[in-house]
Amino acid sequence: MNTVLTRVQEQVSRVDRSRSLLIGISAGLTALWSLYRVFWLFYSMSVLSGVGYSSGSLIFSTVFWGAIAVVAGGVSAVFLIRYLKTT
User: Which superkingdom (predicted)?
Assistant: First the structure.
């Protein structure tokens, strides 16, 4: 069963194997950095609400970095799967 869309798979299969490893690792590090940012944004929201300030201004940043984490994680998975293929 193919988990990647056909058009995306065609585009990814054109990338060289060693370059796909580099892209996969870079995207994975970006996803980890984004998750780190989301963690600290949640922490900041809890601290601000504990002191009496509204944490609503941080919601946009949390959603933004969460979306980056999801997209970068998907890109990382696709390119690392491409790297692991033998052909």
Answer: Bacteria
Question: Residue 79 and residue 12: Cα distance in Å, rounded?
Answer: 7
- Angle (nearest 5°) at CA 7 between 63 and 85: 90
pTM for the full predicted model: 0.82
All structural domains of the chain with their residue ranges: 54-87
- Tokens standing for residue 31: 């996803």
Q: Which helix (H) or strand (E) holds 69?
A: helix 59-84
Chain-centroid distance of CA 25 in Å reads 11
Question: CB of 72 within 8 A of CB of 34?
Answer: yes
Q: Phi and psi for 52 in degrees, rounded to 5? A: 110, 0
